[in-house]
Specification:
Distance between the termini of chain A: 105 Å
Number of helices of chain A: 1
Number of strands of chain C: 1
Helix content of chain C: 40-55%
CATH superfamily of the largest domain in chain A: Rieske [2Fe-2S] iron-sulphur domain
Helix content of chain A: 25-40%
Order of helices and strands of chain C: EHHHHHHH
Oligomer: heterotrimer
Largest interface: B-C, 85 and 64 residues
CATH class of the largest domain in chain A: Mainly Beta
Largest sheet of chain A: 6 strands, antiparallel
Strand order of the largest sheet of chain A: 1-10-9-4-3-2
Shape of chain C: extended
Strand content of chain C: under 5%
CATH architecture of the largest domain in chain A: 3-layer Sandwich
Structural class of chain C: mainly alpha
Number of domains of chain C: 2
Number of domains of chain A: 2
């Protein structure tokens, strides 16, 4: 019957446009979702951090006698004076971020959390730590003070000569 | 007038009947309606197999886990009234709870020990369900929901662990968050987002507080509802006995 | 059989056309009742009452415990001083013990992820609903595959010196393979061993290893995560 055919057609077209509307709507919602994810990510990352400065003033280099390891617990690093010069070593364990401790009677650095042990040059000789303790960028400023940048680990050994 | 008559009178009153439509009576119909027509109870089935109630079948571990959760919600809300999520005030509030607030130390103890008990009970519940064979089809999806609830229990414990801001809390979270940064590619970034900084600090305390008190409990309630509802939908508790289809 | 039939039996899987299933009991077979319908009880009040009593007993226990034992509270958080030993809560001490043996990626990420994934897939594979003997089918192949997996696991654990997990691995695998060697007269123990699916052995292995690692981390680790006896004074 012609009437029935017409009805079927109009139904199909209606179906078609509804489907199109849904597709466009879903696309718009997806774009909005992606945008919200980007905004959410930037909202969750703080732009200003009220954390202490990574650069530490360690005072005059002559405070550190030859062949000594001086822990600076507040800054989480060691200042080591050897015949080659002075260098700074991070005291934060490369395993899971516990603060290591200098054992003067044994001459080693030990981590209390998972038992890693290091030599005074940062090389690990026992325990699960994956990397040696990093050497930190160290220099002397115009006032003659030793400065250490905790955010910049060195890739190779570097001594400050006095 | 006797007390029991007064109770019947109240339960037959227009106000009571407007809230609880099941009506009074100890017929099975009334008892079914009492469960079916209650928004919280209707997650459960109207009848259960007699054997499912035997202590040896479940050891009531799921019920006890839920009990721990309820205790934790109540004590947790009360503790929130005396706790400021800031450094170092959070720690001072712990001391106040211990020495100044009436019953403060009791509430904190109850919250802490219930949290430990919940972790233990949820693990025990999982192993009991496994060894009873109750994880098998058609209950496999509810097992997965249970695994999610186990994870949520552990996350809730972990986030709550930082809030006292004592030595134990600080170093446990320092170690735990450094595990996160071991994840390849996105680990360090995830750690930064969860801590809200490079170190465990005031931002981390606030984020853990929000996770512990709002986000994780809400997610847990949703999954709990699905978990209980699926018990009914999957044919009731598994009793380990063959029954007629 | 020569009896006259006044019906025809046919198979049909369309539940709309044939909604009723009929069981034909011929003369040679008899209806075998494996189980009867369980008795049911009403949720309200029977189940609710029991749940309430269970929760009340729990609450009572926790209240008494909380009245007599105080929750731990150490000194104010100090980023400059790591306590020695620094321990996580007890339920993470198994994980912390693993971190002592493995690099963080393995102990902190890969192993926990594998455990969670294994827990999720357990109901989806190797369901042994009929409790059929595990070793009956493909015995040779199963022995080869599982044997090499067990040897690889033991070698991996030995490489990292994880004897705390190695010993239960060897034990559980040994008990599992015990079921594979059929004896002429299988006893009850042998039948029990044989009836367990693979997931049972994996789960038991996980449970044993988790308990041992947690116990070691809780009781046997002292300063610097060194091995100490729990009864030896600090």
């Amino acid at each position: 019957m012609p009437g029935e055919a017409k009805k079927a057609c109009s139904g199909a077209c209606e179906e078609c446009s509804r489907r199109r509307f849904t597709a466009v709507g879903l696309g718009a919602v997806a774009i909005a979702g992606a945008g919200s994810a980007v905004f959410g990510y930037s909202f969750l990352s703080p732009n200003a951090l009220y954390e202490p400065s990574p650069i530490v003033d360690a005072g005059k280099p002559d405070r550190y006698p030859l062949d000594s390891v001086t822990p600076d617990v507040a800054s989480g690093l060691y200042i080591v004076h050897r015949a080659e010069g002075i260098y700074a070593l991070s005291a934060v364990c490369t395993h899971l971020g516990c603060l290591t401790a200098w054992k003067p009677d044994l001459g080693i650095i030990a981590c209390p959390c998972h038992g890693s042990k290091f030599h005074a040059d940062g090389i690990k000789f026992e325990g699960p730590a994956p990397r040696p303790l990093p050497w930190l960028k160290t220099w002397v400023n115009d006032d003659g003070n030793l400065l250490i940048d905790r955010s910049e680990p060195l890739t190779q050994k570097q001594f400050v000569r006095i | 007038m006797k007390l029991s008559e007064a109770v019947v009178g109240v339960r037959n009153s227009r106000v009571w009947r407007s809230v609880f439509r099941a009506g009074t009576g100890d017929t099975n119909l009334h008892r079914s309606l009492a469960v079916q027509q209650n928004v919280f109870m209707h997650l459960a089935s109207v009848k259960v197999r007699r054997r499912a109630l035997d202590f040896g079948v479940t050891w009531y571990l799921g019920t006890l886990s839920l009990g721990c959760f309820l205790i934790l919600v109540v004590t947790g809300i009360l503790l929130m009234l005396y706790y400021h999520p800031s450094v170092p005030q959070g720690y001072a509030d712990m001391k106040d709870l211990q020495f100044v607030v009436s019953a403060g130390v009791f509430l904190r103890n109850l919250h802490r020990w219930s949290a430990h008990a919940m972790v233990l009970l949820v693990f025990a519940h999982m192993f009991k369900v496994f060894y009873r064979g109750a994880y098998r089809p058609p209950r496999e999806f509810n097992w997965v929901v249970g695994v999610v609830l186990l994870m949520l229990t552990l996350f809730l414990s972990y986030t709550g662990y930082l809030l006292p801001w004592d030595q134990l809390a600080f170093w446990a979270i320092t170690v735990g968050s450094n595990i996160m940064s071991a994840v390849p590619l996105m680990g360090a970034k995830t750690r930064f987002l969860i801590l809200g900084g490079n170190t465990v600090n005031a931002n981390a305390l606030l984020r853990f507080y929000v996770l512990h008190c709002v986000i994780l409990p809400l997610i847990a309630v949703v999954f709990l509802a699905v978990h209980f509802w699926r018990i009914r939908k999957d044919g009731g508790l598994h009793t380990g006995e063959k029954t007629h289809e | 059989m020569s009896e006259p039939k006044d019906f025809t039996a046919s198979m049909d899987s369309d539940s709309h056309r044939t909604p009723v299933r009929v069981a034909f009991v011929t003369r040679r077979t008899s209806p075998h009742v494996e189980a009867r319908d369980d008795k049911n009880v009403m949720t309200y009040p029977e189940v609710l009452l029991r749940a309430a009593v269970a929760v009340e007993v729990l609450l009572l226990g926790l209240v008494v415990w909380s009245l007599f034992w105080d929750a731990p509270l150490e000194g104010l958080a100090d980023p400059m001083l790591t306590p020695n030993p620094a321990k996580a809560p007890w339920y993470f001490l198994g994980l912390q013990e693993l971190l002592h043996y493995f690099p963080p990626v393995v102990g902190g990420v890969i192993i926990p992820t594998l455990v969670v994934m294994a827990l999720i897939v357990i109901p989806y594979f190797g369901i042994n609903i009929e409790a059929e003997g595990f070793w009956i089918k493909d015995r040779e192949k199963k022995m080869r595959v599982l044997g090499s997996v067990a040897v690889a696991l033991v070698a991996f654990l030995a490489w990292f010196n994880v004897y705390a997990v190695l010993i239960p691995t060897v034990l559980i695998a040994g008990i599992m393979f015990l079921g594979a060697f059929a004896s002429p007269k299988p006893g009850r123990l042998r039948r029990w061993l044989d009836s367990k699916p693979l997931s049972f052995w994996i789960m038991s292995w996980f449970l044993t290893a988790a308990i041992i690692l947690t116990a070691i981390g809780t009781f046997f680790r002292g300063a610097g995560w060194a091995w100490v006896m729990p009864w030896s004074a600090e």
